[in-house]
Amino acid sequence: MSQLTITVNGIKVCGNRHEPLLTQLEKAGIEPEYQCRHGMCGACRCKLISGSVTQQDTLAFVGSNEILSCCSIPQQDIEISFDYQPNRNLKVTNTKIAL
Ligand code: FES
């Protein structure tokens, strides 16, 4: 089954194993900061607390246990955190909340 759970700053949403993490968060109504969406600026950086992702080669600096959400695809349930609380778009009607 390709569905998985993404926990971001304590909020659980449903995810998958084929789209970039940033895209999945946006579809779930969570709006992390970003600029380039191609691994160059580092604006989408977050900490990977648990789980694993595949991440394509990037130019932006990432510290240990950090990933770029625009270039990372979850491989299993993951928990991540941003240093700030991302905005949430509560008007999204197809938001899926993991139980
Ligand atoms: S948005 Fe620029 S590295 Fe992800």
What are the main properties of this structure?
99 residues, mainly beta, Ubiquitin-like (UB roll), five-stranded mixed β-sheet, two-stranded antiparallel sheet, 1 helix, binds FE2/S2 (inorganic) cluster
Report on the architecture of this protein:
There is one protein chain. The chain has one domain: Roll (Ubiquitin-like (UB roll)), CATH 3.10.20.30. It contains 1 helix and 9 strands, in the order ββαβββββββ. The protein has one helix spanning 21-27, and strands at residues 4-8, 11-15, 30-31, 45-50, 53-55, 66-68, 72-74, 78-81, 87-88. A 5-stranded mixed sheet has the order 2-1-8-4-6, with helices on one face. The longest helix has 7 residues, at 21-27. The chain is globular, with a radius of gyration of 12 Å. FE2/S2 (inorganic) cluster (FES) is lined by residues 34-37, 39-44, 60, 68, 70.
